[in-house]
Amino acid sequence: MAQKTKKRIRRNAADAKDSILTESIRLFGENGIDQTSFAMIARATKVTQPNVLYHFPSKEILVHEMVQRILIHNRESVEALMKPGDSGREKLDKYLLGNLAWAKQYPDETRVILLLYYYATFRPEFRDLYASILKGARGRLEGFLQCLVREENRKPEQSLELVAQILHDWVLGALINHLTTASVRLSAESSLRKKWSVLLENID
Question: What's the whole-model pTM score?
């Protein structure tokens, strides 16, 4: 009896690349970066492995493009809550809520960012990429903090750059807890918001 060959789906280049990115995020989120092979990605997307390598010749290139998509989704989740005329405090609150919404809607993307955080500690090829993510996120928080201290006439002793780092680290910690601790879930949104408010009230 002749063996059945696996059916490959014909797609145009843009659709194929989009599908590869989608499945790569899922597989990396489920299995890790080193544990996910190009062969696994090809099987998941129903294209040939050379086709995957045509679009993404290395894992480093693939991770870079995955991160760009993830950052777009994260920013969209935050901006969807923002309104013209929001105060600095409202922008900060919505930054937290937007990140929680993103983590709920895109759990695999959340895992990939946290994996990147881990890999950046010992893989130089990912260190600069993660540093750029931190710089962008903390810079955005610092901008919201500038609005807050101006509107509320506050004079913090600490630099807003440092405060932005602290707030970002807190959000990162909340996401880690969500993924690693069964008893902590992002559904406990009110509790997280209260803690966030305490942090903002103690900006001195």
Answer: 0.87
